[in-house]
Amino acid sequence: MVNMRYHYICMIAALCTAVVAVSCAEPHNTETDVDKSNDNNSFEDISNKEILDSTAIIFDTNTNESVYLCDYLVDSSLSVYNYTAIDLNSDGTCEMVIQLSKGTTEYWGSLILHSDQERIYAHEFTYRSFYDLKADGTFMYSAGASDYGIAKMDFISGSYTIIPIAYCESTEDQDIAYIINGNIASKDQFDIYISEQIDKAVADWQEFTSLMPTTE
Question: What is the pLDDT of residues 40-54, one digit of tens each?
Answer without folding.
Answer: 444 555 443 343 233
